[in-house]
Fold each of these.
Amino acid sequence: MTEIRCRKPEALEGQPEGESRCVASEEEEGEEEMRRSRRDEDDQEETNRVQPSKQKSAAVSFLQYLLRMFFGFLAAVACGMLYAGHLSGYHDRKFWFSTRQELEREISFQGGSGLYYHYYKRMLAAPSFDRGFYELMVDNRTISGQTINAVERLFLYPELITSFIYRITNSQVRRSSVCLCFTLSENCLIVICN
């Protein structure tokens, strides 16, 4: 900006003698005009230079966004796996789940969890996924004397998805039946197989 200088001119018409008047000289006004035009030219050059950097900064910010999303997703998966491991260990410590027989495990489920686990086991015991799905659609073992669609009535979609993933990943291990043998006396032997 132009510096404004105040001077005391000689008495002008209509002004008292002691009053000062602040004016900018004509030379200073000319210099100010030149400075403004130089600034305008510099601003135009700067905007021309800024545009490519804005494009670069947009690409960099998009890359940063992708990296944040990737690491956030990775952290969420890691936390989920740690939490699942914690819950599994907690359930095993609370109910001694790993040392129990299959039937005792089913009984130890609380609320409706045992029923859903039973349907999950039925899906795995079926010869194929299609056959297991059909058996659940036309279920006559749950309610005596009635044929129901257990998939819709009990919302068994999570069990269907889980059993499908279990079959696809070939996680099935040959299932062997669990047999308990009791000898009551020399002649009496009781064998219970699940």
Amino acid sequence: MVSFSQIHRSGRHLAVAAVFAGAMIVAGCSGSGDDQPGTTSRSGAAAPSGTAVPPGSGSRDLSGGGTCSAGEDIVIATVGASPIISGDCGTISVSADKVRGNIESAAEVTISGSDVTLLGETWGTVTIEGAGSGTNVDRIDRLTLTAANTRVTGTHIGTATVDGDGGTINTDGIGTLTLNGDRSTIIVGGAIDRLEVHGSANTVNWSEGARRPATDTGKNNTYTR
């Protein structure tokens, strides 16, 4: 029924390696070898990943990529950054615009920057607040789209709530889908277990699960099952 619902997985990891390899090389070459006056030289010491943030912030800046400790909270605050982040992260806040990156695993991801594209494997709670931002993540437990023109691709989403207008979701399955905004397009290769629609002019295409929306208070919505 939906021939392009599998597009997101084809060659995804190869593409990531190609796009971000240059960024990793540049990051590895950056830094200063100057020693501070009156201190012992540490030219041969390895520098820690990420950028230090002011005391009290509680989060490390990994705009340059790196590995987060189990449950560690981090931020990405550099415009145009291309971080590749491994490890089982805690809360990740992406405040910068035009970020292109890969985040392996996180308990929570909030994207407030605009025109952000992030890849990943397993994320818990995801909130996209930046216009034109999107993700390509295998599994998301809870998804909320508040901004306009967002885009999400993946394998499975537990719960998805679309509050913004003009969003796009392309996945293999959604547990519960709620559409509060207008003009979104939802393409699901498998099941939507429960569907509620309160917005208008939305298009929803799925093949299994709910026969029809449990609630439809909007106008001019199109459903194909």
